[in-house]
Amino acid sequence: MTDGYILLVNPWIHDFAAHDLWAEPLGLLSIGAVLRENGYRVQLLDCLDRWHPALLARQRRTAPPGSPYGTGKWPKTILPTPHVLAHVRRYYGRYGRPLDLVQAELAHWPRPDAVLVTSGMTYWYPGVAEAIQVVRARWPGVSLALGGVYATLCPDHAATLGADVVLPGEGELNALHWVDAVTGRTSDWARYRALDDYPGPAHDLRASTRSIGVLTARGCPYGCPYCATHRLNPGFRQRDPRRVVAEIAYWAGRGTTDMAFFDDALLVNADRHLRVILDEVVGRGLRVRFHTPNGLHANLLDEALARQMRQAGFETIRLSLETADEAQQQATGGKVSRAGFERAVAALWAAGFTVGQVGAYVLVGRPGQLAAEAQESVAYAHALGVPVRLAFYSPIPGTPDYAQAVAAGALPPDPDPLWHNHTVWPLAGRWMTAAEIQAIKDQALAGNQRLQGAGA
What is the pTM of this model? Predict the structure, then answer.
């Protein structure tokens, strides 16, 4: 039996563009909390940590550049563009802490008994591969497992990156079983039967907890044809709202000022869930700014809920419009309608939210979508006074839209995951041209500037 020292690794992002919108490896931090609860000693190597002291020292800063709410840009190191992406006329690079700083940090750490590496977007796998290589170079032969989004959606491809084992699916129990097997221990696995049996994520493993992510549920009751939530988190399970409030209060009491909800369906069952959370937050006098980088289901947002959100301290509201085409709204599950979206927008304005706080996601590039649909959706949101955030479609294995793209010949049956990149996909030109996509970008930017100027 080993002494139980486990290293968690959050890899770099390799891409053409990346921005820190309260990014945090919540799944990995939840695994870390479970491991600690079972007697393991845990350390985090976060290649994306903008608050790391060595990085700030090199930048001659006391805090990373960015917004007052905790978002900002990661440092970028230009890298050679993978040959699969050679046609993209943009600079490819590594986002996160410089390689030499990470290597210098590892040089001072003892050899772990096991290493758990997480993964994000499927097309970010080169950063995962690099992180695995760096760990292997420091500790040859160390037991290493790979999990996360990419590992779940592309397990066969993930198995080629050099990990000893790929752990797809929700990570806590999978990781605990594997670590126990590696270390020769036996943990109390049976204690974890429901979401509320897990401890809260170990945010304290990070260099700063000024902003954190919060999950009040896993999964989503909807079945959008472009989304893989059902593969990542089967079913829809909400936590006890009072447990969520306790987590919020705990971190608020330790100096956290900004919290981002990363739920896929935050407003579902609001009377029994979110409203309870908001009432408790207000009743306890908790002073926190809340953000919703994941889009909210507009059909579920009414004026009473909007007022509660405003009173509780919500600062960033993102609505999932995706399309204003009513036929497409119904074809994608009916989770949003024009009437519902208009009601939600009116509720937000009535509650006192401003143009600078509200935005709508419009999806661009779905298989079969023509430019006119996206342009109409942008114009529709702007007409209601809502700035637009363009969300470019990314082909995700295991979804109906992905199957449609393959059937139409826009994707080979088993492409390199680099082809899933939302920057690359629109350039395929199957349903929209590059000029049409640029026109949509220009339309969104001009309308946003007009709205923000009027609201200043």
Answer: 0.94
Domain with CATH 3.40.50.280 in the chain: 5-191
56 Cβ partners below 8 Å, 6+ apart? 62, 63, 64
Q: Tell me which architecture the domain covering 5-191 has in CATH.
A: 3-Layer(aba) Sandwich (3.40)
Main-chain phi, psi angles of 126, to 5 degrees: -60, -35
With contact defined as beta carbons under 8 Å apart, do 192 and 173 qualify? yes
For 143-172, how does the pLDDT look when each residue is reduced to its tens digit (9 = 90+)?
999 999 999 999 999 999 999 999 999 999
Largest CA distance in the chain: 66
Strands 93-95 and 388-392: unpaired
As annotated, the residues of the chain forming the CATH 3.20.20.70 domain(s) are: 205-455
Query: Measured between alpha carbons, how far is 412 from 424 in angstroms, rounded to an integer?
Result: 14
Cα 217 from Cα 201, distance rounded (Å) = 13
CATH of domain 205-455: 3.20.20.70
